[in-house]
Amino acid sequence: MRDSLQTFGGNVRRLRKELGLTQQQLAEAADLHLTHVSKIERSICEPGARTVAKLARGLRVSAGPLFEDIDGR
Questions:
Q1: 48, exposed or middle or buried, with CB in 10 Å at 0-12, 13-18, 19+?
Q2: What is the pTM of this model?
Q3: Residue 70: inside a domain
Q4: Could you tell me if residue 71 is inside a domain?
Q5: Dist. CA 18–CA 1, nearest whole Å
Q6: What is the number of other CB atoms lying within 10 angstroms of the CB of residue 31?
Q7: Between 71 and 45, where is the model more confident?
């Protein structure tokens, strides 16, 4: 079973690919460093609230889809 961090990273990757963006393009759109985006997608680092907001903006979604399939239990 995937943990919430893995699910979050997978959601970021899926949404990015659905938009046809590279990690570099997402990083630029979200005003984040490429390495940070890569680490989030690989579940190496846990993003804070500001980073989640930046990712959502870069992916042109609300924050909700980033948390899809994370139930908090």
A1: exposed
A2: 0.93
A3: no
A4: no
A5: 24
A6: 10
A7: 45
Q: Which of 46, 44, 45, 50 has the alpha carbon at shortest distance from 63?
A: 50
Residue 69: Cβ-neighbour burial (10 angstroms; 0-12, 13-18, 19+): exposed
User: Does the structure show a pLDDT above 70 at 54?
Assistant: yes
Which residue range is the domain that position 32 belongs to?
A: 4-65
- Domain count along the chain: 1
Q: How confident is the model at residue 73 (pLDDT cuts 50, 70, 90)?
A: low
Which helix H or strand E contains 55, and what residues bound it? Answer: helix 49-59
The Cα 29–Cα 4 span in angstroms is 24
**What CATH number has the domain bearing residue 9?**
1.10.260.40
